Amino acid sequence: MDSKPHNKLHIYFLPMMSHGHIIPMVDMARLFARRGVKATLILTPLNAAHASKTIDRDRELGMEIAIRLISFPSAEVGLPKDIENHSSITSPEMSQKMYKATELLQQPVENLLEEDSPDCLVADVFFPWASDVANKRGIPRLVFYGTSAYALCVYHVLNQQKPYKNIESDSEVFVLPNLPNKIKMTKRQLPDYLRDGTENHLTKLIEKITESEVTSYGVVINSFHELESAYSELYSKVIGRKVWHVGPVSLCNREIEDKVHRGSKISISEHECLTWLDSKKPNSVLYVCFGSLSYFSNVQLLEIAMGLENSGREFIWVVRKEKKTNEEEDWEEWLPEGFEKRLEGKGFIIRGWAPQVLILDHAAIGGFMTHCGWNSMLEGVTAGVPLIAWPLFAEQFYNEKLVTDILRIGVGVGAQEWCRWPDESKIYVQRKDIEKAVVQLMVGEEAEEHRSRARALGEMAKKAVQKGGSSYNYLSALLEELKLNNN
Known about the structure:
The chain is an alpha/beta fold. The two termini are 17 Å apart. The chain has 20 helices and 15 strands.
């Protein structure tokens, strides 16, 4: 017998096993819970460990939010038992196994839905089977994309109209048709599967994703209408999807403790980090971080180090701490001799996981060098911080154009090539270009213009999630619609 309170919506949230998808969906579930929804996150054990403190704290505050565990099928797909997240993989082969694992989660999720009878399933785009599962239960499935309406429109044009098709040279510029802005790209900035047209595991998955989106109830997006109004309208009216902008969801983290425990376990004490930042002048520090999936070769890391040093600017640099073999090795062989001693007090290196939102919100931060992953980019915008765009893969080259050409809140570092797994011997961006971009963003009249526009967007972001704001109203409308469906 259904024991749910009358009109109390129960919504399941199923994120992809990647920090860039789990973190915003955890925030989204918390946001829904604060609006009176019973929210349940479906996570695998190792991923749940990263979110449990945050969820426990919200429960103590009276939110009805919980985690349901499902096992990750490591053995079935040939992955080590301690790998349940895309940030832990080190090769294209392991990546394919992760995608295979997502297919095997269908039955465990079905079992939970049968047991709990929720009213709605918000499932990550990388679970195309979620639409069928929800339809079988007679409940709506909402698609969660870890990106923006803008990027979805760009991808739609590339996929449907193929403006790159008759371009012979990889470096020749072409314009994307039928978009609100003139967006220029080259073939080198496109994913391999678009560029060379080969069919593989990922292209087949993308086909399934497109089909499942069409049969879903609609799309929830971690963004706000004012940031991309023309693309929000294009996506809903022309492409024909129901869409709700409910972000920036990172703004549900108001307390320092929330910001510190967001995502993985931080690699430094927040006190040490904040004390260092407190000693700096406003807008004087560049924050450098490339997300949880980005890899750099030693030669490229050396170029970053020298570019930062040569710029003369103060910085916080987050470097992924990893080992590529089981043997002990000097993973910091890339670090220039005497680098940290020379830059003592001027440069702060965080090895591992950083409390990004906490850092970006600090008054000392005057710029953010980012890979243009959507979460990072939106968190920079929300903090009112101008950006240096260094796209690497996924939709990041589209996002660079949003930063530099449309919103005009930053500069590009000069990255030209889409690359998920870099060549160990290749330098993709030179130190002189890194130095130039840092100085351009942090110093002078142009820098002030970027900062002014970024601040204005940051204010809009905060208003969007407040009562009466666009994202607040979108979420209200969505919840009302789901309640009507449930009656």
